[in-house]
Amino acid sequence: MSEPIVTFQDVHKSFGDVKVLKGIDLEVKPAEKIAIIGPSGSGKTTIIRMLMTLEEPTAGDIIVDGNNLWKMEKNGKTVDANDKHLRAIRGDIGMVFQHFNLFPHMTILENCMTAIIHVKGENKEKAKKHSIEMLEKVGLGDKLDNYPSQLSGGQKQRVAMARALVMRPKVMLFDEVTSALDPELVGEVLEVIRGIAKDGEMAMILVTHEMDFALDVADKVLFLDEGVIAEQGSASQVIEHSKNERLQSFLKRFRS
Amino acid sequence: MNNWNWDTFFEAFPLVLEGIWITIGLTVACYLFALLFGFVWTFLRRIPIKPINWLVTWVMEFIRSTPPLVQLFFIFYAWPMVPVVGFAMDPFTSAVLGLGLHFSTYIGEVYRSGIDAVDKGQWEASTALNFSTRQKWTKIIIPQAIPPTIPMLGNYLIIMFKEVPLASTIGVVGILQMANNYGAQNWAYLEPLTIVAILFLILSYPSAILIKKLEVKMNTRFDKKAVVNSSSSKGAV
User: Fold this and answer.
1) Cα distance from B128 to chain A (closest Cα, Å)?
2) Final residue of a domain: which of B157, B172, B187?
3) Out of A54, A114, A149, whose CB is closest to B139?
């Protein structure tokens, strides 16, 4: 078995007095696809937001490729990570958001290129070539010079995926990426994710409400309930054969 | 009392007009000072240390709540008498400092509103792409925050232009002071002051219209680009 690329060790998170996560332990192996399901407010999104360094855990450790994400050594003491430390590790992780968060003042191509040029220091020609390839892969090769405001939600989300993919992260996070889409646009976005999942050595963590999709793509499904992982296992174990009552009633709402 | 006299008008006109460069120059200098110093306020207010934040907010409120005329008088007449730190400045510099500082507090608020209006998802996406703090500001946030504030910034230019005659009280000789001087020498105020009013109107009104147009343009700026782009790409196909 290969070493995990991401490990959560007893991770807790509170917002004020509200305890959102109460001890999360999790291992993600390279190339593993994990789906996190659960009722809204159960803390699904918070898990991946902490991994993306958008929220700081209240307690516990998150290890990325052998490095403690939120802590660092300084003069032999363990202290809170500074921005430099976070930046060094964060490059392994990419994220696609529910609301796309494309840069409205840049064209589709610029959206994809900007970070590889300014963060990874790739030269402009190469960056452009890679971005165009990636945009063609998600089926938007003909929209390079358009602005995000001209695209449909599904197209925007595909651009957001190309923008994250072109950075070549080792772990890619998907935060309810189809929740803000019109129903008829969900299919095209899931199709792209399926494609990425198939050809990728990249690990993926998907927070999703698409049960059939989770069943299809994920190696492992976690059911998160009231801040703890209440059930985990292969997709068919969790979604089709679980005895957990809360999971059953949660699933029933999606199946009806 | 004499009535309107065209001879007086034409005699006074070139004299009053001489002051226009001082008026415009002072406006531009004050405005640039306010634009730059506005950034300083915006930066200071973002320092996440409570006492500093409180102090900066209070100083800004103080500057905004006292009349610009009082501030001008203080800087020109009183500041040189302040022990240790005080020193005298010429009228023009005093006016730039006084009016510029006063309006910088408003400009700083304009910047802040622009920055606050940028969706927090933009910050998160730029973190996810691993931009440095500096790159986040220069590549993502400022390019989105500033354009929508341009009409507001333009409005402040016009407002400042109309406040600049205050500087005549400390001896900056713009068009108002020129007209006043002419009036005092010839005991004819009607024509020169009418000229002043006309000059202000000629400069402010078209600027106001320009800013209105700019506002419309800014509100539709991404749609505009969109139209240009889609038509050009169609042409290419």
Assistant:
1) 6
2) B172
3) A114
